[in-house]
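During the no-cost extension, the postdoctoral fellow (Dr. R.K.) reprocessed legacy sequence entries with the updated structure-token encoder. One reprocessed record is reproduced below for audit purposes.
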Amino acid sequence: MANATMGQIGSAPRADADPLLQTDTLRNALDDARETAREQLNAAWQIEVERIQEQLAGGWRVHIEQVFEERFDELTARVEGEFRSAVESHVCAAVADTRARVRRDVAGKLNQAVRHLRSFENEDEWSRALVDATAGFCDRAALFIVNGPALRLQASRGVLSEAKIDNTPLESAPAFAGAAESRDTIVALRTRGELSDAIAEVLGEAPDQRFCLFPIAVRDRVAGILYADSGSQVTETDALELLASFASAVLEGQPEAPDRSKLVTIATELQPSPTV
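Re-encoded structure tokens follow.
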């Protein structure tokens, strides 16, 4: 009985040792599995982090490029605007200065012309002063006196021909007839049909160019017609109209005094009234 009991008691530790061994083995296996899972998780996390970093890096680069392009476009637009404003300001100032200078020059020429027109002593002086005053406003000029139904070339500037026009019928020159009738500026083509044969022989025919006629009205009639044309420059019609108006005003204001008796009467030619 004793042996049997001892045998039973002695065999108990062996039966308890098996579960402990199994527990250690399981623990070790779990630890290994945990370590392996941790390593795999770390590896996966590292891969994911690197991928996210690459995406962030790529997105940041794109964002930076976009910001740079936007800022550069803004800077370009601002610089262009400032440059354009500066150029426009400079151009406007230059244009304003040029206009002021031209205005002064024109005013000076017109003032000088008026002084010459007012101080004439005879018809030739007055006619020469008028055509000379057109310099700078046109290439060529000629003054025609209206003798009733006829035209006479009194003075010219820039006209090479020395032919005389003493008694050309007004009706043969439609443009001149229109200016005399309307008492307004006429612009027409330089053709014989507008000028008449006689005037075209003196002034030349150029169907591709234009000429201007400025009537000089005195009292109730047109006493003269100022002809102007330009081949190389633009005819300044405004200045020439003003000049013709000055000429008309000068003739209107001349007293019918004896000391002017030597004048060939422009304003009253072929009229029964006394000379200017």
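Confidence is low (pLDDT under 50) at residues 1-15, 257-264, 268-276. The chain is about 60% helix and 15% strand. The remaining legacy entries will be reprocessed before the final report is submitted.
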